[in-house]
Structures are given as C-alpha cells and as structure tokens.
C-alpha cells in the first residue's frame, strides 16, 4: 500500500460554470500524470465517503477540479467558499499513456462531466488533437480547449448545439489513438465502433479508500476483477466488460 495521507489545501476558486457543474481551484505544490485523480474530503461527517475527482488541470501551484453536483457530498463541495480548506489524497491511479503518441493524430472523446480530465491531457499531448464532446443539452467548458486542439466537434441530445444525437455517431475513423471518458454506455459505443487503434477509457466509480484496499471500485475485465483506483482508472477499452 502506498504511503499517502490526506493534506489540507486552500480553495482559491469555486464557481458554477453551468447548471450543476462547478470548477474549483486549490493552491499548493502538485505533481501528477494526466488521467490521475484525487480523493476529496470536504465535510466533517465521518459517515460520508470521500469523492474521487479527476485532475482537470494543473499549473502554477494550482490544481483544478471540474465536478458535477450529483449528491450530498458534491453539494457540500459546491457550497465551499474561497479561503475554505478541503482535504485531498493523491495523486492516485495510473493515468493515460501519452509518450508513444507524440506527433500522432489523436481524438479526445468526452461525455458530459467526462470532459474534466481531457483538458490536462490536451495540454500535455504533443500531437494533432481533436475534441469530441457530447452533452444532453447545455454545453460547457469546451472553450478552454481551443488553444490545445485543432478541431472541436459537439453533439447534444436535443440538437441545441452541434450534431443532434450521440457524439459517438460522428467520430471519424482516421486517428492513431482515442482517449475517452464519460458514461459507460458512451464508452461502450466507442468500443463497438471497432476501430483498429488503441482506445483508452477512464472509468468512474464510487470509492471508499482510493488506494486499492477496500475493493469497492472493482470492475470486470477480460483478465478478471480490477480495481479502478489502483489498476485504473485508465484501461484499454478492449480489456473492459461494460
């Protein structure tokens, strides 16, 4: 087991950017791989589990989280003020492999809040990058990618912006690698496209510890049960049984 412990960090930004979607910056000294995550504690209630939150961005002694309010824990997180402290444990997980794709054609495929880990990835990739982002209706956070991507393709279920339908319906078959994060049905649809290239998916799960001890985040793979927090959260899509 890794010798990690929670540390207190100060919030320097916590703002609503869309309905139910918040961006939080905390200050400190951080070093992590793209695709890793932190366990976040922002409440005194010892009966509540910490929340795994992916690294959205990291720069200038600042760590950014992008998160959706989906329950009591993230509701409390959204109510935190600048100057408040939260506790974080990490970085955790394996992260995305990127070195072997320098100079290649890359697609980032995000569904909803799955766009969160894609920004830091886009910044670190030395490649020709396109972003595919799917939303139910209102889009958010896509402007931050313009400096780091060549093209942005949007799909919404309602057709309010971009393609009407699912983002997986418009992914081109001319990339060297795909990185994907979002709802499991979306990532399974990417798998079912059958492209003969590496496809890496970042899985999400409720977690108890974040370090592989409690097994709460285990998922089925071709090679047996794997812990999302330890062997993941990034897997090759061909390994995963959705």
Automatic annotation (TrEMBL):
PANTHER family: DIHYDROOROTATE DEHYDROGENASE B (NAD(+)), ELECTRON TRANSFER SUBUNIT (PTHR43513), DIHYDROOROTATE DEHYDROGENASE B (NAD(+)), ELECTRON TRANSFER SUBUNIT-RELATED (PTHR43513:SF3)
Protein's GO biological process: 'de novo' UMP biosynthetic process
Record family assignment: Belongs to the PyrK family.
Functional summary from the UniProt entry: Responsible for channeling the electrons from the oxidation of dihydroorotate from the FMN redox center in the PyrD type B subunit to the ultimate electron acceptor NAD(+).
Annotated HAMAP family: DHODB_Fe_S_bind (MF_01211)
SUPFAM superfamilies given in the database record: Ferredoxin reductase-like, C-terminal NADP-linked domain (SSF52343), Riboflavin synthase domain-like (SSF63380)
Binding site for FAD: 51-54, 73-74
Cofactor note: Binds 1 FAD per subunit. Binds 1 [2Fe-2S] cluster per subunit.
Annotated InterPro entries: Cyt_c3_hydrogenase_gsu (IPR012165), Dihydroorotate_DH_ele_sf (IPR037117), Dihydroorotate_DH_Fe-S-bd (IPR019480), Dihydroorotate_DHASE_ETsu (IPR023455), FAD-bd_FR_type (IPR017927), FNR_nucleotide-bd (IPR039261), OxRdtase_FAD/NAD-bd (IPR001433), PyrK_electron_transfer (IPR050353)
Record-annotated FAD-binding FR-type domain positions: 4-98
UniProt keyword annotations, A-Z: 2Fe-2S, Electron transport, FAD, Flavoprotein, Iron, Iron-sulfur, Metal-binding, Pyrimidine biosynthesis, Transport
Pathway: Pyrimidine metabolism; UMP biosynthesis via de novo pathway; orotate from (S)-dihydroorotate (NAD(+) route): step 1/1
Protein name (record): Dihydroorotate dehydrogenase B (NAD(+)), electron transfer subunit
UniProt entry tagged with the keyword Transport: yes
Oligomeric form and interacting partners: Heterotetramer of 2 PyrK and 2 PyrD type B subunits.
CDD domains referenced in this protein's UniProt entry, alphabetically: DHOD_e_trans
Residues the record lists as binding [2Fe-2S] cluster: 209, 214, 217, 229
GO MF entries: 2 iron, 2 sulfur cluster binding; electron transfer activity; flavin adenine dinucleotide binding; metal ion binding; oxidoreductase activity
Annotated source species: Parvimonas micra ATCC 33270
Cofactor: FAD; [2Fe-2S] cluster
């Amino acid at each position: 087991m890794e010798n990690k412990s929670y540390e207190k960090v100060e919030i320097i930004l916590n703002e609503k950017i869309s309905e139910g979607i918040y961006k939080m910056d905390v200050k400190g000294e951080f070093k992590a791989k793209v695709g890793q995550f932190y366990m976040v504690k922002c409440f005194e209630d010892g009966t509540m589990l910490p929340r795994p939150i992916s690294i959205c961005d990291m720069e200038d002694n600042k760590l950014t989280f992008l998160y959706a309010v989906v329950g009591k824990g993230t509701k409390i997180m959204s109510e935190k003020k600048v100057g408040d402290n939260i506790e974080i444990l990490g970085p955790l997980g394996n992260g995305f492999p990127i070195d072997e794709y320098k100079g290649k054609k890359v697609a980032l495929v995000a569904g909803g809040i799955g766009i969160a880990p894609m920004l830091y990835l886009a910044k670190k990739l030395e490649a020709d990058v396109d972003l595919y982002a799917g939303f139910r209706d209102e889009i958010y956070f896509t402007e931050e990618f313009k400096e780091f991507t060549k093209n942005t393709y949007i799909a919404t279920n309602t057709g309010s912006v971009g393609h009407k339908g699912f983002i997986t319906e418009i992914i081109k078959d001319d990339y060297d690698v795909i990185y994907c994060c979002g709802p499991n049905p979306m990532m399974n649809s990417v798998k079912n496209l059958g492209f003969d290239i590496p496809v890496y998916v970042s899985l999400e799960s409720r977690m108890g510890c974040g370090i592989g001890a409690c097994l709460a985040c285990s998922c089925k793979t071709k090679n047996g049960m794997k812990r999302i927090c330890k062997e993941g959260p990034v897997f090759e899509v061909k390994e995963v049984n959705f």
